[in-house]
Amino acid sequence: MNIQRPRPNVATPNDLDAFWMPFTANRAFKARPRMLAGAKDMHYFTTDGRNILDGAAGMWCSNAGHSRDPIVSAIQKQAATLDYAPPFQFGHPQAFELASRIAALAPKGLEHVFFCNSGSEAVDTALKVALAYHNGRGEAGRTRLIGRERGYHGVGFGGISVGGMVNNRKMFGTLLTGVDHLPSTYDREKQAFTKGEPEYGAHFADELERIAGIHGPGTIAAVIVEPMAGSTGVLATPKGYLKRLREICDKHGILLIFDEVITGYGRLGYAFAAERYGVLPDMITFAKGVTNGAVPMGGVLVRDAIYDSFMKGPDHVIELFHGYTYSAHPLACAAGLATLDVYRDEGLFERAKALEPKWADAVMELRKEPNVVDIRTVGITAGIDLAPNKDGPGKRGFEALDSAFHDHDLMIRVAGDTLCLTPPLIISESQVGEIMDKIAKVIRAVA
Ligand code: PMP
After folding, report:
1. pLDDT tens digits for 15-38?
2. If you measure from the C-alpha of residue 414 to the centroid of ligand 1, how many angstroms do you get, rounded to a whole number?
3. For residue 393, pLDDT beyond 90
4. Is residue 120 within 6 Å of ligand 1 at its C-beta?
5. Maximum pairwise Cα distance, the chain
6. How big is the CA angle at 282 (ends 129 and 288), to the nearest 5 degrees?
7. Helix, strand, or coil (residue 114)
């Protein structure tokens, strides 16, 4: 295979302590650093000359593979033309064009886009829009926010409050008050080794009725869920679950937000997972795939009724006191437009949909490997659960990642005892096989 190598002479710096790395065991990393020097299509290249097969699309970002020429040129051209534009009281054409292109991809009814710079900002924006929407309609008492156990919604205070990952919450005090959590929809006993959406579990949505009953439905502003919980191990929502949530939200005037930071832009074979599930949320948060990961960008798609409710006051008054210095950044917009062209021209969403059955079969083959206690697949994703080792639940992860990366030149994401796979959607069938071979070897090595 013709793998383009990065420019040589990318040295590892001597002092690694100035950079406090995010979500990383800094001391372990710095004792044994792993440095990426380049990337092209399905591969990363390290400073010590390895070619790493990307089984993670970086971090669920690069759906079209890495350093794609049209995206690179669009960013270069934009940087040389309009490098930065203040987003308050000024616009630039690419921002409006990108918003229209994204709205055209979204389910009908979600027609407006608020831009920000990350998934975390998208989540906090959506939660704030929900609160401001109710407030503006004279329902200021609707302040309660509902998330889900094992949900991940980024690291803003809003996101960790509605998120359901203990480690992301426990260091940070009381967080937002007035937050409840739906139960996780995962039940290994009833759902193990499911391809696609589990048959069992739509009833987990009914917990929303119970929560509404406790507090009074008129106190709840919004519910936020991922159509497929990615960071906590690839947990597809059960068949009928999202429809049921939609019905309960409709009944009680609660807004429904889908966090599609991972599931957006083709990961589940559709532009947005909302389309796969035939459920129209009131807002969709997105990030990652919108620019193929090349420039940070996030955003919130909102329904007409929400947007319109902010547009009805006097036209010289700011409608929503919210925004970021880098909202709709020109480089991100240029990257976004070029990315959407690549997705369209290469038919990558359709490709993902067509590949899903073969992908699922290939991943399920791993069930015969030692210690594999569950495998889940949906779209071009997979979560492979290993039985906890002697160190206890969730303690195996770093070793598995380490060994996969170093010994077998494969990049995957590890969440506790779960190996998460989300390769770029340009992956070939032989590369699917290559990933599975490497995973099998790693699983045997850590057994
Ligand atoms: N929401 C979901 C569903 C995510 O998966 C992530 C990131 N993995 C985020 C929000 C946060 O995105 P970011 O890291 O860009 O802030």
Report:
1. 899 999 999 989 988 998 989 999
2. 15
3. no
4. yes
5. 66
6. 75
7. strand
Predicted ipTM of the assembly: 0.99
Number of the ligand 1 atom closest to the C-alpha atom of 231: 5
Predicted TM-score of the model (pTM): 0.97
Q: What is the DSSP letter of 218?
A: G
DSSP 66: B
pLDDT above 90: percentage of residues in the chain? 87
**290 close to ligand 1 (CB < 6 Angstrom):** no
Other beta carbons less than 10 A from residue 317's beta carbon: 6
Mutational test site, ligand 1, from 63, 262, 265, max ligand atoms within 8 Å of CB: 262
Average pLDDT, the chain: 94
What distances in angstroms separate CA 441 from CA 360, 370, 435, 437, 447, one per listed residue? 19, 10, 10, 6, 10
Using a 6 Å cutoff on CB, does residue 425 contact ligand 1? no
Q: How far is the CA of 214 from the centre of ligand 1 (A)?
A: 30
H or E segment to which residue 420 belongs: strand 418-421
Q: Determine the pLDDT at residue 420.
A: 95
Q: Is 415 in the pocket of ligand 1 (CB under 6 A)?
A: no
The pair phi, psi for residue 219, each rounded to 5°, is: -100, -5
Q: Which residues contact 4 (CB under 8 A, 6 or more apart)?
A: 40, 41
The amino acid sitting at 413 is: R
pLDDT in tens, 350-370: 999 999 999 999 999 999 999
Distance 122 CA to ligand 1 centre (A): 9
Measured between its terminal Cα atoms, the distance across the chain in Å is 31
Which of 73, 78, 122 has its CA nearest to residue 330? 78
Write down the pLDDT at residue 1: 46
d(CA 210, CA 182): 10
* Domains parsed from the chain with CATH numbers: 26-64+347-446 (3.90.1150.10), 72-345 (3.40.640.10)
pLDDT tens string 151-203? 999 999 999 999 999 999 999 999 999 999 999 999 999 999 999 999 999 99
- The residues near 182 (Cβ < 8 Å, ≥ 6 apart) are 146, 147, 148, 149, 204, 205, 207, 208, 211, 223, 225
| Residue 54: alpha-carbon gap to chain centroid | 17
Give the alpha-carbon dihedral of 382, 388, 393, 399, to 10 degrees: -70
Q: Which structure tokens are listed for 42?
A: 């399905």
Bridge partners, 285 (sequence order) = 259, 300
